[in-house]
Amino acid sequence: MSEGKRNTEMGILTGIAIILVVLGHLDMNELSVFGLFPYYSFHVMVFLFISGYFYDPANEEHILKYIGRKALKLLLPYYICNVIYGIISTILSAQGFAFCSPISFKTLIIEPFLGGHQFGLNFPAWFVPALFLIEVLNVFGRKMLALLRLNYDTLHRIHLDPDILVFVCTLATGIACVYLAQGGHVWGAYKTPGRILFMLPVYELGRLYRTHFEEKEKRIPDAICISLICAIQFVIYICAQGMLNFSAVWVTSFASLCFVPYLTVITGTWFWLRISRIIAGTSIGRGLDKIGMNSFHIMMHHVAIFFAINLITYAICMLYPETGGFDVDEFYSNVNYAYLFGGMYAWKCIYLIAGICIPAFVPAFIVSRIRARRR
Length: 375
Prior knowledge:
Helix content is 68%, strand content 0%. The chain is mainly alpha-helical. The radius of gyration is 22 Å and the shape is globular.
């Protein structure tokens, strides 16, 4: 939000990003633009970019209040869901499902900050505690600049912009983290700090874009902008031999030069940001903005929706064995398993639509009906 007005472009971008996350978990590459923009080369980082875009330096004046507000907004709903999924996970693990763990103090409280995959069905929400840590680190880091008298006014007087300084410093640290990860040095206890240091520059990039590049970038004609982004991405794709995907959560799978992940984050985010700007004001844009408003619910629950569909399908296949094709072993071991009726790839669309629409629109519909009855 900015000056009391919703930023529709960023809302649409959020909606696109969460759709890419769901597509990625279903191994559907339809929106990768012929493989030129693979999802795992940027999609998670888009949420960091958007969060950084909305960062307000005024938060540094009331740092504890800011952190408390972020804890209520991010951690409280996360942990409420974590308890629910912990109970479900305990039941499922007792039934032999391999992708979940029983509830315990570690899996409930600590593991969300270490890996976030403890209960399987809500594993995509690993991003929420990571985002909280990044926002805390960001505001503390900027507060330290102020305490060292390297505040905004001082830096401007010596012609050193604070947002550029913060971005350059975090980018250097992030690139070093990728380099260490490629050498196998970011593992075990180093995963959590490695993940945060790797992701932090993208948060700062969002802030830098808003303060320095947004107005200039908007002046580039759409056709020229899209063509330029695709040309840059094509060069990156060729130089990296198509190996652009990486794992942000595990800080692994960096197959190219240590700065390439940040290049693909920039090009991927820039591409879909421009698309968001083009379709803003259209019915498609409004729909994607609605999805973006509910990105937390989709992130938290879409894999559980996949599982529910599989559970129903499994029961049907047990009642009607002639249906066939249901892989029981995959069902018990792979949380992202999707049953393809008759081997039809298009069957995944059921998972896609349900995984997006049920978390996004059903809760809002229920709330609206309850309010209507009270009136």
